[in-house]
Amino acid sequence: MPKSKRNRPVTLSKTKKKGREHKENVVNSIRDAVEKYDSVYVFSFENMRNLKFKEFRERLKSSSRFFLGSNKVMQVALGRSVADEIRSGLHKISKLLRGDSGLCFTSLPKEEIQRLFNEYEDYDFARTGSTATETVELKEGPLDQFTHEMEPFLRKQGMPVRLNKGVVELVSDFVVCEEGKPLSPESARILRLLGIKMATFKLHLICRWSPEDFEVYREGLEDSDVESS
């Protein structure tokens, strides 16, 4: 009987080599993009939804290329100082790559990119740990939106429910979540069942670089953030 490939040990040196090769490929791809496209933007994101971002990226596939991942690797690719930047001024872009951010290389006019990013937002169900954007309270009485099969599940989520002649009934008022507080796993599940979407996936432009100029878009970024060291 042949040995299962799943059980074959992988040496640490191989995993390190693979990781290094991936980083080198990202660095080379970013450097190629600098030469291919007219400008590059740093953008940040809130409540990332991979599928939605993939759809957004596909819309711009013919004119743009996006990079997400390790900020450090992207900074190395661009250059983190005047001494090692691959094009003049790119170290300023590099310094603003922090937190939840990425790179967008594009040949589209800046007005078009600004419009696409500023207009884009998509609503989705909030996940565990997200901050509730409003207080949701259910009042005592029948919950007609739920079938009787749901009653055991709702009880497991902490809801004070019972079956009354086949109808799910809340025996007392119940606060699902409170505005400004993080959502528990149970709260997130109940909100999904109620169809209440509290998460908004948004993209924000931070800055733009081109061979001719450099612009910072987001307020609150001080000059010292982009000055060369």
Automatic annotation (TrEMBL):
Query: What are the record's GO terms for cellular component?
Result: cytoplasm; nucleolus; preribosome, large subunit precursor
Q: What does this protein do?
A: Ribosomal protein P0 is the functional equivalent of E.coli protein L10.
Q: Which GO terms describe its molecular function?
A: RNA binding
Q: Is Nucleus included in the keywords of this UniProt record? A: yes
Question: Mind telling me which Gene3D superfamilies this protein's record contains?
Answer: 3.30.70.1730, 3.90.105.20
So what family is this one in? Belongs to the universal ribosomal protein uL10 family.
Q: What is this protein called?
A: Ribosome assembly factor mrt4
**Organism of origin:** Sesamum calycinum
Per UniProt, the keywords (alphabetical) are: Cytoplasm, Nucleus, Ribosome biogenesis
Organism classification, top ranks? Eukaryota, Viridiplantae, Streptophyta, Embryophyta, Tracheophyta
